[in-house]
Amino acid sequence: MELSLKGRVALVSGASKGVGKGVARALAAEGVNLVLLARGAAELEDAAREIADESGVQVLPVSADVTQRDDVHRAGVEARERFGTVHIVVNNAGAAIQRRDREIMWDDDDWQKLVEIKSLGALRVIREFLPLMPNDGTGRIVNITGASGVMTWMPALTYGLNNAALIHVTGYLAADLASQKITVNTVVPGLVGTEWRQEWARSMANQAGKPVDEWLRDFCISKGILSGRWAEVEEVGSMVTYLASDQARYINGARFAVDGGLTANVR
């Protein structure tokens, strides 16, 4: 399938590892030049170098915190100076679930920190990069959300809140930006085998006294994942790349589950 993406430019936030890096690699494989955002400069530089070496595209790494307006603005300035335009914006920045205590008892600051990263961070990125996006039908915004935005996943209260919010933002902006010929869609992964998830699985399997593959299969089945496994980051990247392409020019305001059937029975 010809995706007609070669030579275009994409911004990917949270791009130093995990889903963001997988998305960046998938886009680069189609000849898309990249602006990569993440907080950790060293890890981001390594990811940028790796992707540039394997794909031959131009990669601009910008160490930036999406909770900081000045950082996001600086990223926009650097992208404009380097490429002049950005066709594709992929909002992926977010914090992994690291605490399992009852979130309803958290302090305000703990809630706010996560909202600032995922929900407000995405809005800051979109606001900054919209002026760089063309109005010729090649503009794409793809928000990476998650299954916890459409179902209850314990103990992910604020995690789900943010995903649900960004799903709403997707529909709203699809309508708001339709006159500019910019499409806005969301990819909704379930369980994804990111670096931190792999470490988590090893720890849980060790506690259960099982091989990792066996424990993970049993866990996925117990959660209702029909495929009996988690997603690879490349599978999420493939969906984002399709939505960024000319093949998806008539898809707008939609959400696409990449979850192995996890949410098949969600009403």
The SSE order reads EHEHEHEHEHEHHHE
% residues in beta strands? 5-15%
| Main beta-sheet strand count, sense and barrel state | 7 strands, parallel
Label the overall shape: globular
Cα-atom Rg, whole angstroms? 18 Å
Helix content: 40-55%
Unreliable stretches covering 5 or more consecutive residues:
none
Beta-strand segment tally? 7
Count of the domains? 2
CATH superfamily assignment of the largest domain? NAD(P)-binding Rossmann-like Domain
CATH topology of the largest domain: Rossmann fold
Quaternary structure state of the chains depicted? single chain
Structural class call reads alpha/beta
Helical element count?
A: 8
The averaged pLDDT comes out at 96
Distance between termini? 34 Å
The first-level CATH class of the largest domain is given as: Alpha Beta
Topology of this protein?
Elements: E1 9-13, H1 18-29, E2 33-38, H2 41-55, E3 59-63, H3 69-83, E4 88-91, H4 108-129, E5 139-144, H5 157-176, E6 182-189, H6 195-208, H7 212-222, H8 233-244, E7 255-258
Tell me what the structure shows:
Helix 4 links the parallel strand 4 and strand 5. This protein folds into 2 domains: 211 residues, NAD(P)-binding Rossmann-like Domain (Rossmann fold), CATH 3.40.50; 38 residues. The chain has a 7-stranded parallel beta sheet, with helices on both faces. It is globular. With 267 residues, it is an alpha/beta fold. It has 8 helices and 7 strands; from the N terminus they run E-H-E-H-E-H-E-H-E-H-E-H-H-H-E.
